Amino acid sequence: MGIYEPIETGSRSQRTFTAAGRILGALKLDGPLLVGLGLITLYGFVILYSASGQSWNRVADAAIRAALGGTAMCVLAQVKPAFLRRLAPFLFVIGVILLIVVDITGHIGKGAQRWLSLGFFRFQPSEIMKLAVPMTCAWWLHDRPLPPSFASLVTLAVIILVPTGLTILQPDLGTGGLILIGGMMVVIMAGLQFRVIFALAAAGATAAWLAWEYVLYEYQKQRVFMLFDPEADKLGAGYHIIQSQIAIGSGGVFGKGLLNGSQGQLEFLPERTTDFIFAMVGEELGLLGATILLLLYLFVVGRALYLAVETQDTFARLLAGSIALTFFVYVFINTGMVSGLLPVVGVPLPLVSYGGTSMVTLLASFGILMSLYSHRKLVAS
Amino acid sequence: MGTVRIKDHWAEQRLFEQRALIATIVIVTLTAVLIGRLVVLQVMRYDYYAELSQGNRVRVEPLPAQRGLILDRNGKVLAENRPAFQLELVRERVPDVEKTLQGLVDIGVMQEDDLDDTLRLVRSRRSFESVPIRLRLTDEEIARFAVHRFEFPGVDIATRLTRWYPHGERAVHALGYVAAISEADVKKLEKEDQLSKYAGTSLIGKLGIEASYEEELHGTDGSRQILVNAAGKSVDKQGTLKADLPVKKSVAGRDVITSIDLPTELVAEQGLIGRRGAVVAIDPENGDVVALVSTPGFDPNPFTRGLTRAEYGALRENLDVPLLNRALRGQYPSGSTIKPGLALAGLVYHDVDPNATKFCPGIWRLPGSSLAFREGRTGRHGAMDLRHAIAKSCDVYFYGLANDIGVDNMAEFLGQFGFGSLTGIDISGEKPGLLPSKEWKRKTFKRPADQIWFPGETVNFGIGQGYFLVTPLQLAHYVSIIANRGTSYKPRLVIGVRDPATGEVKRFPAVKNEEIKNVSAEQWQIVTEGMAGTLRYGTAAAFAGKNMTYTIAGKTGTAQVFTVARNQSLDNQKTVSDRLRDHSWFIAFAPAEHPRIAVAVIVENGGFGSSIASPIARNVMDTYLLDANGQLKVPLPPGTVPLTPGPGYGPLTPGKGTAAAAAAPPKEDAPGTEAED
Questions:
Q1: Which of B250, B336, B488, B614 is catalytic?
Q2: Torsions phi, psi of B353, nearest 5?
Q3: What letter does residue B167 receive in the DSSP assignment?
Q4: Residue B469 backbone dihedrals phi, psi, to 5 degrees
Q5: Using the beta-carbon criterion (under 8 Å), do B7 and A189 form an inter-chain contact?
Q6: Which ipTM did the prediction report?
Q7: Could you report the per-residue pLDDT of B79-99, keeping only the tens digit for each?
């Protein structure tokens, strides 16, 4: 079924469809996933336009990032999975080294050492680790029997916990947690026994308690406190949660209308273009708009999981599964935080929140996912 | 696991598919949870959050009502509003209220003493409300704050209209003053359901007309909803929507027109400068208070910015009690000013022959006892009839008269003139004085021995000493009743209100009291003639009786502060300190034929009655009655029979001063200057 073969069957639109499918296939891209991601990104532009006070500059800026991410996606989709697999351990090692560099000499950004400046360009090594850790885990497991053996698990633990620890030390609890989750998703999809998962969960709870007692910074504890009693400090740490819930709640079923959300437009809602942009959606577009966005995410995650299942080797499956699930975890943590279900952690809403490198890394990861799917060897069917 | 496990691709594929299925279930479940949460927020709690959001974006800004002016009877301004700068604070925008206030003290725009009160005030107000923490800043304070402004986020200078009394302490005891609304005021307003009218008001009437006519003066505060952003700044639009929020207009308070005649008021005050005392002048024809003075006064203007504790303490502890409204609350023995009243009582109850003379030897003995009562200061008057006894204030005559009438008749008769009860003036704080009787004494004293009324006490009452106490207002009211021959009105300071928008004036009708009917016209005439004699040849002739162009009927009085033993003759002027000297009284009305003004003047520790108090009264009457040419502003009705001080005295000849004194007096005493009480 070559791309140049003439299409002679079906209606005009069917033919167009088939032609588009062929082109995408040739580009190693996945149509439905592309459409899902595109819709979410466009939705993000619309709400960013409102959240930024009708600033076309911001939207243009976001569009540039999306274009960058899209390019990264297309490029990565062309890369053969085997190359990615071989690349994984090197990427990991470089990432760890960079993390250590950041920890020691990193520039101060927002009170934490997260950035590494390359003169014209600043980036967060932890952002690379979000991809490098699951890749390395999948690389480690790809030729080992599943479910992983105990020895494998120990190695995996090191692969996951070293960058996680280094990131938390920055201190960046949110990203550290996301790296941990990205790695854990690989292990879980690799068939880790449920009793082990539960045991780990129990251990994690204990670790969380210990971290609470001995490791966490005061501001991090505050965020957790606020979840349980936001009213305690209305104008301090609880302000974000209260205002974002007011924004969402006052939006009602149909919302106040784009550009008409008083919480957002009058700046009561903090971080409204970044971490709390979902509250803008809730306020201006209502339950309807927020649900549509959530369903778009659900579609993307579903499609990504489907592609993961359709891949043929262990490395591809595990990495694709991890990318799909991690994406959902981002969505859930952000929307859960904004709607007051989870504590406030600095996790942006994927593809919608403005700023940072997350748009590029996310689209890059979907590029990898597409590559994993589209480079499978077609066995006789 | 000793054996090397072989990868089983088929099984691994199955395992992954199984995991993917579980993941899908978890993902769908979590998404459902999220949507459920949104339903809770956006559907179930919609009303709650919608209201919070509205409360966020809209701030109610009060529109203070402009307080009504206070005007004198001719429209001259006694109290007005003018812009002043005040310091306001919004609690939510101040990082640390206590520190901020302390900082304001440090730069000298607030007083250390006021910190606690201010803090309480700030905390008692609603959130995001701008609370005035310091009223009426001086230019220097404004400059000082301006320099340090950046150190005080949430504190700002606002321009507000504040009360201003252009005449300072003049008429303060009639006008009262306004000051910051206290917690007690808030409670009172809440009880009267008036608090909503005060949303933007920081000052409230505390005393006098300002307090009594608060409801007329204040008006109703309005409000305006304004769109604010998170920084509390007012914005005119939000997104694409323009703010279209309701405005409730304020209703300005009404101007209050008082009965005060400003020139008369000022003259009365002028007379009392440097003295403790009071002047009350009433128009007998309607009860309008022409002047109401109590000195020393105080400047009401600082009250609008809030007195410091030290300032207030100084006012309170001042030995001359400037805060005391002597006109309404000062209770003094009436002294001889009561004699015209007793003369009437004698005519009514005892059928006294006004022309019969009694001999005054300078001392009077109570029949059937050894008690002797002396003439005030100067020995003997000789033969006295009723008119002369009033004009010359002969104590001996009235000792006998009082003894003849008896205390209960005196109390009953004088009660008709309002003694012992409130006159009902339209500002609060009035005291009733004390009108003694046998009944009163029985009720008041505990020991049976004290409950008996002694005949000697009646005799003392006859010259206005003893238990009998009156206020200057009561005496003015009393003399206005004599002037109007039994007809009287409730004294009042406010005669109407004016709508500031339309200029429409609503006048309040005068409230008539019950008439005194048991006194005949002839009897009124006799007493009035006696009082006219006071100015012509009697106790005030030398001090207030010169160059009269109209007839004045008056009576001097001396209220003893220091009780002199009954059988002693003591010239207390020399032996007692200043503050124990007698109070000096003078009451009068004029023109005697057709009275337009009735005056009572007291000068505390003024010593002998006529010399100090009577010229003040004369000035007050001249100012009120005469025009620039010294002629009556309102001439006497044509055909008015000039009043003479009694048989043998000719009518007053305008321009010739005390020419009447030349007329032959019927008795052996020379008319004129012999000051007697």
A1: B336
A2: -85, 115
A3: T
A4: -130, 140
A5: no
A6: 0.91
A7: 999 888 888 888 777 888 888
- Average pLDDT across chain A, whole number: 85
For B155-259, where are the E strands, in sequence order? 155-164, 178-180, 203-205, 219-220, 222-227, 237-238, 241-242, 247-248, 251-252, 255-258
Q: Which residues make Cβ contacts (< 8 Å) with residue B558, sequence separation at least 6?
A: B335, B336, B376, B582, B583, B584, B585, B607, B608, B609, B677
Global pTM exceeds 0.80: no
CB atoms within 10 A of CB B161: 15
Helix (H, G, I), strand (E, B) or coil at A334: helix
How many beta-carbon pairs under 8 angstroms link A with B?
A: 155
Percent residues over pLDDT 90 in chain B:
41
**C-alpha distance from residue B676 to each of A133, A231, B308, B457, B470 (Å):** 118, 82, 48, 22, 22
Whole-angstrom Cα distance, residue A329 to residue A348? 11
Which pair of structure tokens corresponds to residue B374? 């002396």
Q: Do A263 and B24 touch (CB under 8 A)?
A: no
Q: CA A175 → CA A97, A168, B52, B440, distances in Å?
A: 17, 8, 33, 93
* CB burial string B588-607: b at 16+ within 10 A, e below: bbbbbbbbbbbbbbbbbbbb
Q: CA triplet A363, A367, A369: central angle to 5 degrees?
A: 115
Q: Look at strands B358-360 and B382-384 and give their pairing.
A: antiparallel
Hey, of A184, A240, A266, which one would you mutate to test binding to chain B, going by the most B CBs within 10 A of its CB? A266
Known catalytic residue at B336: yes
Instruction: Map residue B350 onto helix, strand or coil.
Output: coil
- Per DSSP bridges, beta strands B70-71 and B58-63 are unpaired
Q: Decide: B165 and B301 in contact? Cβ < 8 Å.
A: yes
User: Tokens 């559907």 map to which residue?
Assistant: B43
- DSSP letter, residue B291: E
Q: What count of other Cβ atoms lies within 10 Å of the Cβ of residue A56?
A: 10
With a pLDDT cut of 70, the percent of chain A lying above it is: 88
- In terms of phi and psi (left: phi > 0; alpha: psi -120 to 50; beta: otherwise), the region of B486 is left
SS (H, E, C) A76-128: HHHCCHHHHHHHHHHHHHHHHHHHHHHHHHCEEECCEEEEEECCCCEECHHHH
- Measured in angstroms, the CA of A313 and the nearest CA of chain B are apart by 8
Contact present, B294 and B280 (Cβ < 8 Å): no
Alpha-carbon dihedral B260, B264, B268, B271, rounded to 10 degrees:
160
Among candidate residues B587, B351, B578, the one with its CA nearest the CA of residue B464: B587
- The closest of B248, B470, B223, B450 to B337, measured between CA atoms, is B470
User: Angle at CA B656, nearest 5°, toward B650 and B657?
Assistant: 85
Q: For the segment B196-226, what is each residue's pLDDT rounded down to a tens digit?
A: 788 778 789 999 999 999 999 998 888 887 7
Task: Give the phi and the psi of residue B359 in degrees, each rounded to 5.
Answer: -95, 130
Q: How far apart are CA A49 and CA A251, in angstroms?
A: 18
Token duo for residue A24: 């995408």
CB B478 within 8 A of CB B419: yes
Min Cα distance B433 → chain A (Å) is 60
Cβ of B34 within 8 Å of Cβ of A308? The answer is no
Residue B424 carries which side chain, given as an amino acid letter? G
Amino acid type, B355: N
Cβ proximity of B356 and B385 under 8 Å: yes
CA distances from A310 to A20, A27, A296, A370, A374 (A): 21, 18, 21, 11, 10
Q: How far apart are CA A195 and CA A192, in angstroms?
A: 8
- Min Cα–Cα distance to chain A from B99, Å: 18
Q: Which DSSP state fits B178? A: E
Quick one: DSSP state of residue B41?
Answer: I
Give the 3-state secondary structure of B120-151.
HHHHHCCCCCEEEEECCCCHHHHHHHHHHHHH
